[in-house]
Amino acid sequence: MIRIDSVTKRYPDGTVAVDRLSLEIPDRSITVLVGPSGCGKTTTLRMINRMVEPSEGTILLDGKDITQQPVNTLRRSMGYVIQNAGLFQHRTIVDNIATVPRMLGWGKEKARARARELMERVGLDATLAKRYPYQLSGGQQQRVGVARALAADPPVLLMDEPFSAVDPVVRKGLQEELLRIQDELGKTIVFVTHDIDEAVKIGTMVAVMRTGGKLAQFAPPAELLSHPADEFVEDFLGADRGIRRLSFFPSAGLELLTAPIVAIDSTAEQITARDTAGAPYLLVTDLEGRPLGWGEPDRLTAGDIRAEHLLSHGRPFVAGTDSLRAALDCAVLSPTGWAVAVDAEGRAAGVVSQQTIAEAIRGAHAEGREAEQATRATQVTKAVG
Ligand SMILES: Nc1ncnc2c1ncn2[C@@H]1O[C@H](COP(=O)(O)OP(=O)(O)OP(=O)(O)O)[C@@H](O)[C@H]1O
């Protein structure tokens, strides 16, 4: 939908911020521009809505050169969200969000009704409508920024480090919210960040840029992590690239053991009769099946299941839904070295050892290599053919 074609931006002082950049930004997906400070991310984003004009090259929107339409028409088709939200301090939240519809000539009530609808969509309580920006937390202000950008329902959303100024927990919430909104609305989003974790989490495609405004790699996150194009990208991805990559492997294939799970009302006899399938501890659950903690079999067989004697089971992972990274994290953080899997309702679905998870990781890597070899073989066949 947006095609950046060999675009260069040279500022009047001679700085080359973007150097012959070409990118095809796919429709209805999130494309992330990531890279070190000063590599030209913001300049690229601002060239898309013509806040900055390219020195060379063209940008096409739906096949049409963006310079061929009035700049206001172009900007109306592109919501813009910046760090710290950039809200109008003297306007209420509802009126901030209603700004663009009002500019487009909507009546006050219709624009406010739309604003209220968007507040709900971005997870803002309706009671905040009449407040002013300074009466909101940083995270809430960012949500208002997103709602305001969405108000006129533009097909494109440009986001420049929108979540950088909030703490990691709020940031995670905002990222999840954005993914949910994207699922519902299917916008074409171009998102600038310098945080590779954020890029990998939300990007459908990730463009890694290097200093001097050149493209280093353009790939889906999983491919970026498995095949960094060069040393620069590899360094930028960081030392724990392998662990991050596990986020893309599902936990669905993990073999979960249910034998070491016992309910808190089990009798000593029931526990003794149990084959724990090699697990050093038993996972005790409440009567609804929700995990309470790990117990030493000796203590439990003495018929002494008391919650205060149990070791913490840590944070469980959701069987099938969560990734192998989440499963491994649970196992590593668990005092027993075993991870607890739960179902969507939080009931224990099984337990799994670090060793089993490690085997699953090796299996996933092997599958990845096989798939790659198959792709290469097809390419070779095609080339030869
Ligand atoms: N108006 C300007 N005049 C001159 N040089 C500029 C101007 N705006 C940006 N630059 C320079 O262009 C380069 C790219 O800047 P840009 O803001 O696009 O980078 P960025 O990747 O978004 O950086 P950051 O992550 O720090 O926000 C930098 O060297 C910057 O100093």
UniProtKB/TrEMBL annotation:
Record has Transport as a keyword: yes
Alphabetized SUPFAM superfamilies for the sequence: CBS-domain pair, P-loop containing nucleoside triphosphate hydrolases
A Pfam family matched in the record: ABC_tran
Keywords: ATP-binding, Nucleotide-binding, Transport
PROSITE patterns, A to Z: ABC_TRANSPORTER_1, ABC_TRANSPORTER_2
Signal peptide start-end: none
SMART domains in the cross-refs: AAA
GO molecular function: ATP binding
Residue ranges annotated for the ABC transporter domain, each copy included: 2-237
Protein family (similarity comment): Belongs to the ABC transporter superfamily.
Name of protein: ABC transporter ATP-binding protein
Organism of provenance: Streptomyces cellulosae
Lineage: Bacteria, Bacillati, Actinomycetota, Actinomycetes, Kitasatosporales
